[in-house]
Amino acid sequence: MIQGIGASSGIAIGKAFVLPNWEWDLPEQKIDVADLAREFDRLYEGIRTSKVEIEQMKDELREVVGTEESYIFDAHLAILDDPVFMNEIQGIIQRQYKAAEVAVKEAIDHFVTMFDLLDDEYMKERALDIKDVGNRLLKHLLGAPEITLPSDTQPFILVAKELSPSQLAHLNPNHVFGIATLVGSTTSHSSIMARALGIPLVVGLESKLEEPIQTGDMLIVDGDTGIVHLHPEDSLVKQYTELQKRQYEANQRLKGIVSVKPVTEDGKEIELAANISSLKELDVALASGTNGVGLFRTEFLYMDRSRLPKEEEQYEVYRSVAEKLGGCPLIIRTLDIGGDKHLDYFELPEEDNPFLGYRAIRICLDKTDLFKTQLRAILRASSFGKVKIMYPLISSLEEVKAANALLEEAKQELTAEGHSFDENIEVGIMIELPAAVMIADILAEEVDFFSIGTNDLVQFTLAVDRMNDQISHLYEPYHPAVLRMLKMTVEAAKRGGIHVGVCGELAGDLRALPLWLALDVDELSMSAHAILPIKERLLCLKQQASRSMFEKLLKCKTSKSIHEMLAAFQNDQSSDMDVKSTAFRTS
After folding, report:
1. For 207-221, 276-290, 568-582, which range has the lowest pLDDT when averaged over its residues?
2. What tens digit of pLDDT does each residue of 439-496 get?
3. Is CB count within 10 Å lower at the N or C end of the chain?
4. pLDDT number for residue 135
5. What CA–CA distance (Å, rounded) separates 69 from 51?
């Protein structure tokens, strides 16, 4: 068993095909001064051809994974237009009299090494983009063929050190059971694309392998647990084959409750909404019977491109989502960058602790033109559906008032220009900082709704960076302090008479469902694939039983005892589910 990181869910069983690393045979001799012009011509022709190829891939991929995911290739086009990258290549040719392909290879190595040394996961991922673009350019300069995959129709599990978006774009999902890579992360472009394509993916195997994987080796890839089995015994293959079958049957069963209202046995209804970052994810959510969008992450509109999106671009996307929802609520979170989210064209200051630094609403209130452009686009889209605005990382009443003042300015501008919008658009905030919890009663007087961002709330409550391997075990969502924070927040919202939802990972965690029932939250917003499992469990629960259990949880002194009590409660409910035909219940 090899423990990696699950980056795209699902189980794959099959033989490996190991993708060879890029290998280039580069000329060693220097060029003559008289040949400089020819080398520059070769470089520019290679760039032109690479751009044409990338545009073609982008167009082809748009039909498969959606418009937003295809924007990944805008980042590749931006690299070929990047003056720093190009100046490095040109400088090596002109000053060192080296051939264009040698200059490109040295420039790639220079920037990849520089980015890999940075303690920043985002920059490490951009190093792969540079390699991808650089290798495409090298291919044209050297006249080398593409690295091809097996041409027969036998599906396989693809194994590679790293997989670039370009390589993934050429895969036929019908021929690839799954993917395993030695390096990579769950937020890399390749991981995003694998999830969109529905291909199981495990990354981060490099330091765990005791022997190299060879083409033809039998593999099991479990994208849910991040486990890869090399040379599995027949009994294990049989076990995973049975698990695949059960997953398929469960998915078929869940389809039977798509149109069933999410109501407990004793009448408590909770809205089950989706967290999305693209129209493609919205389609999946709608197929799962979502009650709306509880968190539209707008960062994708700003990332993987060479400039800020204009108001019209944003408006078109927001309007499309609102129209597709057909009157169901759409909560649009304003730009949340900084921390671990960067924009290639928007320079952020170097910070010792960026998660506690210049990010989210703090950037928006500083860069008011950027913020107001987004607010205008959201307001214009509000004419086409039940659109709401949500501010992230709020820590004070002053921030809410400042953001609302800019919103009022945007409304006045649009009115003067003759644009229509929802004059009474609802405004809410994310509760993800302990400071916001402690003044939740004050904040509830100023906004229309709360949405609890459990990911950051847990991180900041416990002072634990969940991306830090050394202390990630201390990231404990079921810590007694976290439960008290949740209780304080919901009670403040209820006293203030405002809607309260949850949009962090805990919203889609089956173990946490009785907590939300006990606290009487109004909405849970989660990834689309979690909606139906949560609904199935909700249909079999009783709010009163959850309340009784929660009272006992609040008396627990340790996370371990909380886990034990939740597990016992879940086991009891699972036993009940076995004797209920929930898939065919009607509301």
Report:
1. 568-582
2. 999 999 999 999 999 989 999 999 987 666 678 778 899 999 999 999 999 999 999 9
3. C
4. 85
5. 18
pLDDT of residue 390: 98
Is 189 among the catalytic positions? yes
**Annotated catalytic residue 499:** no
The single residue of 342, 479, 499, 503 carrying the catalytic annotation is 503
Strands 218-222 and 227-230: antiparallel
Q: Which residues, 6 or more positions from 217, have their beta carbon under 8 angstroms from its beta carbon?
A: 15, 16, 230, 231
All domains in the chain, ordered by first residue:
1-20+147-239 (3.50.30.10), 22-142 (1.10.274.10), 253-584 (3.20.20.60)
Q: At what angle do helices 189-197 and 72-80 cross, to 10 degrees?
A: 150
Take residue 64 and report the two structure tokens written for it: 């498969």
Task: Count H helices and E strands in the chain, helices first.
Answer: 22, 16
Query: For the stretch 141-174, what's the b/e string if a residue is b when 16 or more beta carbons lie within 10 angstroms of its beta carbon?
Result: bbeeeeeebeeeeebbbbbbebbbbbbbbebeee
Mean pLDDT of the chain: 88
Residue 320, φ and ψ in degrees, nearest 5: -60, -45
Angle among Cα 120, 124, 128 to the nearest 5 degrees reads: 165
pTM of the model: 0.73
